[in-house]
Design a protein that fits this description.
Layout: E1 2-6, E2 9-13, H1 19-25, E3 49-52, E4 58-60, E5 71-73, H2 77-91, H3 95-105
Parallel strand pairs: 1-5
Antiparallel strand pairs: 1-2, 3-4, 3-5
Length: 109
């Protein structure tokens, strides 16, 4: 089992669990557009970005496997600004993004 923290909340997940699915287990909603359960995942929309506090890097949570000791942030102001920029770029080309707008705006929990 893998132990990690997401938004200062600890949890234990089986090996192979993505950070996106770990966050969902905590009730943390991270918007996605290109992720679909059961399909091979190739992240492209970047709406599910999270921040690894140890490295300071941003990662698509749908493709980031949970690792022991990981500390993840989903609601950092800078991170959310980047997600909103991505959303605005997609908004003009995809009606799906417009329906996800409220989820992104209310991502902070």
């Amino acid at each position: 089992m893998i132990n990690l923290k997401i938004n200062n909340r600890s949890l234990e997940v089986p090996s192979g669990t993505s950070v996106l699915n770990a966050a969902r287990q905590l009730g943390i909603e991270i918007p996605t557009m290109c992720y679909h359960e059961g399909f091979t995942n190739h992240p492209s929309c970047m709406l599910c970005l999270v921040k690894d506090t140890k490295s300071g890097k941003l990662h698509p949570s749908c493709a980031l496997p949970a690792k022991d000791g990981m500390v993840i942030i989903t609601d950092d102001d800078g991170l959310l600004a980047g997600v909103m920029t991505d959303r605005d770029l997609y908004k003009h080309s995809s009606p799906t993004v417009a329906t996800s707008q409220e989820k992104i705006l209310h991502r902070k929990k």
